[in-house]
Design brief:
It is a single chain. By secondary structure, the protein is of the alpha+beta class. Helices cover 49% and strands 18% of the residues. The chain has helices spanning 5-48, 54-82, 94-103, 124-141, 196-208; strands at residues 90-92, 109-113, 120-122, 152-159, 163-170, 212-217, 224-231. The strands form two sheets. Strands 2-4-5-7-6 form a five-stranded mixed sheet. The protein has a two-stranded antiparallel ribbon with strand order 1-3. Helix 1 (5-48) packs antiparallel against helix 2 (54-82) and helix 4 runs antiparallel to helix 5.
Amino acid sequence: MAQPLEFELAHTSQAAAVFALATSIAHEISQPLSGLITNINTCVRMLAANPCDVTGAQGTIRRALRDASRASELIMRLRAMFGEQELTLEPFDLNEAIREVISQSAVTIASVLTDGLHPIVADRRQLQLVIVNLIRHTCEATSGLHDLRPELLIRTEREADNRVRVTLRDSDLELPPLSAEALTCAPHSMELDGLGVGLFVSRSIIDRHRGRFWAERNEGVRGTTFCFSIPN
């Protein structure tokens, strides 16, 4: 018995979304793993040389550790999205959590954090992962544009209905010709050259916090702003 057309279309759409997500995950995780293999092989050659290039090997090992850390972080992000663990909800200072992320970032990030925000009840670690994802996405997506580091500004502000908004503004990243909302959906991750997984993970985390996650073009100037809004 033939399946109804609506069922076939729904199944095709679901399969396409799963394929796009799987392809994006494979793309992201293959990059640090390839770098890890290359750096380890280079290190072996340096140590086997006569004379042994210890200084070069040390630098290569540091790059290998960076690649291993990146792969590990990706797996952690995916576990945060697909894992069955419950959210660890606790009150905390959102501005303080953001400052902690900024202090550990490898890029310079300006901040305008609104004073007097009430503590939010959320999973601190997962919200920090969202911010890390956005920073990394922006830096990687703009890495080939010029030799300068991206100019990033992170902001917190109050919204109506007892909510708080967090925005990360970049002066270089240009949205592709898709709607801003579509950029955060898995089926379109291929349009971002494999970088869309971080956005999809971030949206999933914010959804679990009963929030909203979106992107928009900067008005009147170049660049993109990623935003999320959650109950305060």
